[in-house]
Specification:
The chain has 134 residues and is an all-alpha fold. 80% of the residues lie in helices and 0% in strands.
Length: 134
Amino acid sequence: MDTNDTHTTTYEEGLAVRKEVLGASHVERSLGQVSEFSRPIQELVTEYCWGAVWTREGLDRRSRSLINLAMLTALNRPHELGVHVRGAINNGVSEQEIQEVLMQTAIYVGVPAALESFRIAEKALNEIKVSQTP
């Protein structure tokens, strides 16, 4: 297998995981809005974040989601936090577990970061509930 085949395989595996975690419609919408300028970063994220890391056996998806919530809070990345709250729910993480992760970040990262993450998480959770209402 040559390098291009390896990259293609990892990208395809990453695309599948990304759709399973974040939802196919979200991923398709994101990739559909890609410009020629932003295409390289979207391909890198899909191949390496989702294909090379999220497919590893060392942690399950629930654990990866919980870790991402804490890291995104620490890095103050509100847009990505909202996306990963939805992904965490898709990975079987409960609202209470999300709340507990954010409480832990208040102590280790700082209260202002945790407060903002609570706001973002609550908004994402409410949007999920509304979208699931018949």
